[in-house]
Each structure stands twice: as structure tokens, then as C-alpha cells.
Amino acid sequence: MSALGVTAPQGFSAAATGAGLKASGSPGIAVVVNEGPEFAAAAVFTRNKVFAAPVKVSRAAVAAGELKAVVFNSGNANACTGEQGLHDAQIMQQLTAEGVGAEPTQVAVCSTGIIGDLLPMEKVESGIAAVVTQLGDHGADAADAIRTTDTIAKEVLVKGDGWTVGGMGKGAGMMAPSLATMLVCLTTDAKVNAQALQTALERANSTTFNTLDIDGSTSTNDTVIAMASGASGVSPDQDELDAAVHEACAQLAGMMQSDAEGVTKRVSITVEGAADDEQALNAARTIGRDSLVKTAMFGSDPNWGRVLAAVGMADAEMDADNISVTFNGHTVCEYSTGAPGARDVDLSGADIAVVVDLGTGGEGRATVRTTDLSHAYVEINSAYTS
Amino acid sequence: MSALGVTAPQGFSAAATGAGLKASGSPGIAVVVNEGPEFAAAAVFTRNKVFAAPVKVSRAAVAAGELKAVVFNSGNANACTGEQGLHDAQIMQQLTAEGVGAEPTQVAVCSTGIIGDLLPMEKVESGIAAVVTQLGDHGADAADAIRTTDTIAKEVLVKGDGWTVGGMGKGAGMMAPSLATMLVCLTTDAKVNAQALQTALERANSTTFNTLDIDGSTSTNDTVIAMASGASGVSPDQDELDAAVHEACAQLAGMMQSDAEGVTKRVSITVEGAADDEQALNAARTIGRDSLVKTAMFGSDPNWGRVLAAVGMADAEMDADNISVTFNGHTVCEYSTGAPGARDVDLSGADIAVVVDLGTGGEGRATVRTTDLSHAYVEINSAYTS
């Protein structure tokens, strides 16, 4: 077993190979297989109305609560590819199913990369054919294979009492990732049913991937899948499962934030004093998506006025004369006006914590994690297809 | 009379002077005076819940439908400045009123610049004192004085039949300007009442400043004010007034788009085939605010997949399998999949027109004007206060 990643829990194997989909020549096809004895599965998907063929295929597959494998490709999102794209995703599902001894409906498909081009199916097919003969303790290879603009592979392991949760991920957000679609695969040898796993995944997602917002854009392909093999023989209760899945998701989300396209700062935006948590989340997202706030962060500029200008447009109740803001614990704004020394707060470090109180006296609270808006972000994203 | 700008129509004077508010040393105080014989006025303001003291003062002043003058300062927004800020805005109003022979309630106040610092009132007061003694045909000086990050002064003149509409503006948007707050002052010698002027201004605003969306951020200070002197003695009907005011606003909005911070491309996003105009506008705004679409435009990259990924998150009904997209008239996507030659469309010019059909068969249609997201945008906005 690996020390980390999807093959660290008992009952899972993986493999990856180059499929010629990525210019870099690094592997572009990966398969993660649940060897059982149980096959419970859960997933959350993009909320984008324009979603990719593999999302359609995977939604249907996971609906019955059981998966034996997930097949991944990087380099091409198979999104906006019409009937042919759907057919291609089904071929990926079918070939993987045949290769690992499963029904097609027990296989999910995840793709990431450029939108709008048809998959080079000859390469994909030969890649899958090769991968299914090499299954083993190769979680690290799989985590490497699914990277697109990710600079590092992302793997986790969280230990329970006699059971573990492993995982891998790529990309930079769930609700609002960069073009680098977010794909996550969690594996656990806990003995849990699909419903418990789905509950744990949704709870974890809401405060981890779902509040990671790099650039306000949302992929057509975002997918988080969890599979449980039951191979440990241990049945954690829901609280224990929730805690471990949350920890795995939080660690992966943190890695994505640190590795987001062009990031030089990790920025957390917490909104308090809102009428309710949903309004707090609206306000935190509005601030976290504001280009002027994000460029100020890139410049280490404690320009709190931009935070107020941004939050004033949020769909949230606020007392516009009683908003307060702290940067890294230093009060920079009270009663919606500047605090002494506000312009001198040092934001030169890599982590910036912004806390905004909307002044309603309410208990609503939420945190969104984002990044700065840097030259490198513009550079990476201005020349993606060309 | 000037050939252009706020003093081109009959019955208006203006002056501007340096007030030491801007590091560049260029003038930072301007006053535009309606000499009458009539004093009808209209205005639209920012929708930001966090709005600046001068907005509060001006809203109250214009409520009665009559203004004799507007005083402007650049370099400091007098926003998030609490009770002191409100007091300072009232002082500006009062000094200007005294200087031009008006009641304080007949004077509007417009400020633009950094948020959160108190105005240097000594400099502001001496600036106003100087300006009111220099009133004349100095619209061009006023247009220059209100600039912040604007690289050029922005003036217009639209001719009616025996009457004219002049105007000046600065900044980069209304609903969603860059930090450079949008301030606009229109003047006309038409003989029209405040209600007709307000109607014309609101109609023009909805399709000009209100659909100019540079970076999704919205200022605390945005203000568009119109004053009518009646000095021509000509009373245009509402249609004629609407047309002239619309033309003046459209020209100023076009100048703002071209001069937006860091712009290298002017991008228009038109959404058609929506259920109604409001949904079309939602969709156009969502695309126009998407960082990945905007960086692709900067890179002259015909990456239509990002347009689909962006529009899929819009609050608008769409047929996700029947979306079509054109770039500069070339079809790049039909039935939500790529069209032949889509990757080869040349977007290297300075103007890019994106047209998206949501495929609902509806008649809803809207256009939003935006720009690319460039290195220069990041540079300008990452070092604004420091």
C-alpha cells in the first residue's frame, strides 16, 4: 500500500499511462479500481448548465450508489462535443468496464482539459487497454496523470481507527474553479453504505471545495467521486466518517488553493455578523471574486476600501455604516471608516486572512478561500489553446 | 462656447484648478455651473449599498429636480469616511453654493479617487475658492481635472435642432466600473423639465453606462448628472431629447471602454435567443465578467469553450445542447459544439464582437461592453494606494 493517495486504503488498485493527450508527454489516462468486497460510491458534480459528456455518464453511473472503477483522462475535457462526445465517453466507460471485470454502469468517467475538441479516441482506447493490464499500487502515478496546469500532484491520506480515507485531486476549485477543472477521487476501506458516503461527501464539499473560489469561473467537468471498499471490515459511525472525509477534502482543497494558476497569495475571506450563513457566503464570494480586491492582494496593498466597495454589491443584508474589516488580525476599518494605521498593515506574506463583519448583529458566518490575481494568472490563461 | 464638453451648450460655465489632491499635480477641483434661465436637473447614482458621502449629498440635492452647479474633486473618493466625510461633502457643497450664488441644496458633489481617506479639506477649500472666481468657457479644463487613471479627458457634443447636449466623463463603467469611479456631467440648453430629463437619462443609462462592465466591480461613487439651462429657448419632445442624451451617453461610454484600465481589446458581448431581455443581460454580464473569457481575449485566443463554460453558470434559461457562438461574425460553435475552423478565427484586432444564442427560441436580447483582462490591468490595480 502507498503511504498516500487512492491506493493507500485497502481494496484499491490504480494505474496510469501516457496517452499522447498532453503536449508534455506525461501520462494522460488513469484508472482507479475498487477491488471490494463492497462497492459503495458517492459523488458531487458541477452545477454548470453546460456540462461535459463524462459528467452525464458518471451521474447516471453513480446514481445506483455503486462503482467499481473510475477512468480519467487529462488534456481534453470532452465538453461541448455533442453526440460524438457522449458516445466517446461511453466507449471509455465500456472499455474500462471490460478491462476491470465490471458492468459499464459501475464505471465513472472524468475528463479534464480543453473544451470543444473531440477526444483522440485511438489514443484514448490504447491508453485504457494498456492501463487495465498494469493495475497495482500506483496511486501516485494516477495523481500525476490527471494533472493539467497543476504544478504538483495532490494526494492525501486520513487515518481512522482501523480504516483510512485516501484521495487524489487536480485543479483549483469546485463551484468556481479555473479552467483546470477540479477532479477528485476519494477511496476508503471503511465499511459504509452509499448513503452514508454521499452524506459525508456533501457535508465536506460544502465547506471545502465549494468555498474554494479561484476566479469565479466554473468548469463544465467538475467531479468529486468517493468509493468505499469495506476492506478494513471496520464500520465508522457517520460522525467519524464525516470527519475523515472532511479532513481529506480540506487537505486537497488547500493544495489546490496553493497550486492555483498564477497564485502568489492564499487569501481567506471570512464574513461574520450576517443575517444568516447563506448571506455570509454570498458576501464572502462577492469579495473573493472582486478583481480589484484580488489585484490589491497581489500588490500586498492593504486597500480595505476595495473590500467595502465589493461587499456593498453583495446580495446580503448589512449595516452600511457599521462594517468592520481586519487584515491578518489587524483592524483596518471600523464603522465603515478607516482605522488608525490601516495603510501600514504588512501583507507581504503568502497568506492573507480577511475578516469582514457586516454589522447586522446576526450570527451568519462563512469563509471562502481564494487567491490573488497576478500577472502569471493572466499569462497562463491568455494562451491556453494557442 | 467650446466645440465640445459641458460648456458647449448655452448657459453653462466651468472652471478647474489644481488642488494638490493628485500626485501628478494636475487639477483636482472642477465646478460646472448652470447659468440658467432654467435649472432642471436629473441624476442616476451607484447601486452599491456602501456609497460615498458625496453621493448622499447629491441624491438629496437633485431630489427637488433643480441644480445650479456641480462641484467635483479627483484624487479622493470621500467614501467610507463616516460623519466627518459627510460634513466635508457638505462643506464642499456650501462653499460652491456661496461662490456661484446658489442655495447649498442646488449644488451636487462628485468625488473620485481612493476610498477611506479623509479629504484634505484645506486644499479642497482653497481649490473651490479659486475655481469659483475663474468661471468661463473652461469645460475642457473641467474634463481634465476629474481624471484619475483615465489617460485622456472625455468630452462630447450632440447637436439637436437649435439646441445641444454637451458632456464630460471619467472612469470606466456604471454598474460595474473599475476603481476609477464613473462620473459624468451632461449639460443641455434645451428647455426641458426635470422629469423629462430624468426619463431621458434613465433610458440612456440602461443601455450605455449600465451595460459597460469592465471588471465586475462597482464603485461607491458612480454618478451621472444632467443639467438643463433652457438657454436655447427650444423645447425638444421626449423622443428628440432621449435620442440626444442617448447619443451623448453612448459616446462617453465608448470612450470609457477604450480607455479602461489596461485595455488592449474592446469586447462586446451580445446574447440573443433568451427568454427575455433581462435573462439575456444576465447571461451577457456573466460572460463579460468571466476572467477566463477575458484573458483569452487578451491572448486573441478564439477559445469559445470558455464562453460556453461561462454562460452555463448564468441565471438564464438556455438549451444547453443548442447554444451557438460567433466571434466577429464567424461561427465558432453550433449546437453547443465546435464549428469547422473555429480555432483559426483571427481575433488579433482591437475589437472583438461575441454573439451568443441561448437556443431557447425566445426574443430576449442584450449587449454588454467589456474589455480584455491584461497584464496592465493587474499592474495598474495592484499598486493603487502604495
UniProtKB/TrEMBL annotation, chains A, B:
The record marks 180-181 as: Cleavage. Pathway: Amino-acid biosynthesis; L-arginine biosynthesis; N(2)-acetyl-L-ornithine from L-glutamate: step 1/4; Amino-acid biosynthesis; L-arginine biosynthesis; L-ornithine and N-acetyl-L-glutamate from L-glutamate and N(2)-acetyl-L-ornithine (cyclic): step 1/1. Its EC number is 2.3.1.35, 2.3.1.1. The active site is at residue 181. It is found in: Cytoplasm. Keywords: Acyltransferase, Amino-acid biosynthesis, Arginine biosynthesis, Autocatalytic cleavage, Cytoplasm, Multifunctional enzyme, Transferase. It holds the Pfam family ArgJ. The record marks 112-113 as: Involved in the stabilization of negative charge on the oxyanion by the formation of the oxyanion hole. Substrate binds at residues 148, 170, 181, 261, 381, 386. It catalyses: N(2)-acetyl-L-ornithine + L-glutamate = N-acetyl-L-glutamate + L-ornithine; L-glutamate + acetyl-CoA = N-acetyl-L-glutamate + CoA + H(+). Catalyzes two activities which are involved in the cyclic version of arginine biosynthesis: the synthesis of N-acetylglutamate from glutamate and acetyl-CoA as the acetyl donor, and of ornithine by transacetylation between N(2)-acetylornithine and glutamate. PANTHER family: ARGININE BIOSYNTHESIS BIFUNCTIONAL PROTEIN ARGJ, ARGININE BIOSYNTHESIS BIFUNCTIONAL PROTEIN ARGJ, MITOCHONDRIAL. HAMAP family: ArgJ. This is Arginine biosynthesis bifunctional protein ArgJ. It comes from Corynebacterium ihumii. The lineage of its organism: Bacteria, Bacillati, Actinomycetota, Actinomycetes, Mycobacteriales.
